[in-house]
Design goal:
Blueprint (H helix, E strand, L loop, with lengths): L2 E7 L6 H16 L4 E9 L2 E8 L2 H8 L2 H10 L8 E5 L13
């Protein structure tokens, strides 16, 4: 079963552009990871949101220990307000199956 993750990153205002650029540079690498079905960066005025979908919990676990996230942690040090808020979600399908779940 697929696993959906929403990760919220709060960049320090003076580093916002650098944080976005760093995250954008990681997207292509993560897209190549086994089991990555979606890895999409979104923004709000005060935060960045990564919406992810993984083929399985095992694929997510491998991503969590992989080189892309390790590099991100180092590159974002001192540029964000704290650790990302990472929420691993389980679907609650409703309505049209094609529109009611990721």
């Amino acid at each position: 079963m697929s696993v959906v993750v929403v990760a919220t990153i709060v960049p320090l205002a003076e580093h916002r552009d650098a944080v976005i650029a760093t995250l954008q540079s990681a997207v292509g690498q993560v897209h190549g990871e086994d089991g990555c079905q979606l890895y999409a960066l979104h923004e709000a005025p005060d935060r960045l949101i990564m919406v992810e979908k993984w083929a399985s919990g095992e694929a997510l676990a491998a991503h969590s220990k992989g080189p892309a996230l390790a590099a991100l942690g180092a590159a974002l040090a001192g540029k964000v307000a704290g650790a990302p808020d990472v929420q691993v979600l389980q679907p609650v399908p409703a309505g049209d199956p094609g529109k009611g779940a990721l």
